[in-house]
Amino acid sequence: MISRLHVLVLQLAEQAGIPAGVFNVVPCSREKTPSVGEVLCTDPLVAKISFTGSTATGKILLKMAADTVKKASMELGGHAPFIVFDSADVDAAVSGAMASKFRNSGQTCVCSNRFLVQSGIHDRFMEKLSQAMDAELRVGHGLDPETTQGPLINSRAAEKVAQQVSDAVSRGATLLKGGKRLDGSFMEPTLLTGVTTDMLCMKEETFGPLLPVVRFNTEEEALAIANASHVGLAGYCYSQDVSQIWRVAEALEVGIVGVNEGLLSTAEATFGGVKQSGLGREGSKYGIEEYLEVKYMCFGNLKP
């Protein structure tokens, strides 16, 4: 399906006036993907590679591109923290959590994975979040207009989420909603509370509809938990304290921060992460500059 979409984009590009052969689509089978990727990364005619995918695969591509010192942009894994402070607007925080966690059934690189809620607001947040999940989430067929949650990308993805739920419950977390693996690659939207940092869902990226909540007491504690990851793509902060917002946004080790917003991607804004979430930026003027070279010219002895 993705290859068909790319072919349609190619046709639109040519209709827009881009000369044939400038923009190309190279479809291939899953089995041939590694060999095609190797050619693109090692051929000296290719000046730059841009990859969106897992951190593990990005590292492989970077190693192959190193032989020709090729420029590379990498948009890799994320493990976004979603921090709700006591001063937050609870309704806005719940709305943001629903949008950030459950769009595309939790399968985007900027979906929130680790929800950190301060003690003073924790119970109200959990109550309203639970109500929102009941009212808004429906698992089903994508052609059913009432469906909001479709399948995960494959059965392995669903199994990974189920394993994270099982691990959390075995370590003392409380299962408030969902938690069941359904037929095929479907997974119930799941809400966990009493989550601790030693659980798999706090260590591994979750590409699915699992919302684990950690209760915290101080700003320093929340930041320590949020930054305890080898990746840093996106982070979210809900607060009405402007001084706190600036402190937290600066301290979060991520490339993108949503402040009182659960949806943060837009074409005119830069997109990219720090740590092992990747290299370079997409979007805005910075995304264009990734495909340009800087040349310095020094003029001298130019006579009239």
Describe the 3D structure.
- It is an enzyme of class 1 (oxidoreductase).
- With 304 residues, this protein is α/β, with parallel strands linked by helices.
- The chain has two domains: 2-76, no CATH class; 80-259, Aldehyde Dehydrogenase, Chain A, domain 2 (3-Layer(aba) Sandwich), CATH 3.40.309.
- The chain is 36% helix and 17% strand.
- It has ten helices and twelve strands.
- It has helices at residues 2-15, 33-42, 55-65, 90-102, 119-136, 155-170, 200-203, 219-226, 242-251, 284-289; strands at residues 48-52, 71-75, 80-84, 112-118, 174-177, 190-193, 210-216, 231-232, 234-238, 256-259, 274-275, 278-279.
- The strands form three sheets. The chain has a seven-stranded mixed β-sheet with strand order 5-6-7-4-3-9-10, sandwiched between helices.
- It starts with a helix and ends in a 15-residue tail after the last helix.
- 33% of the residues are buried.
Quickly give the CATH architecture of the largest domain: 3-Layer(aba) Sandwich
Indicate how many domains the architecture comprises: 2
Mean pLDDT: 95
Q: Tell me the major beta sheet.
A: 7 strands, mixed
Rough shape? globular
Runs in which pLDDT lies below 50 for 5 or more consecutive residues are: none
Sequence of secondary-structure elements = HHEHEEHEHHEEHEHEEHEEEH
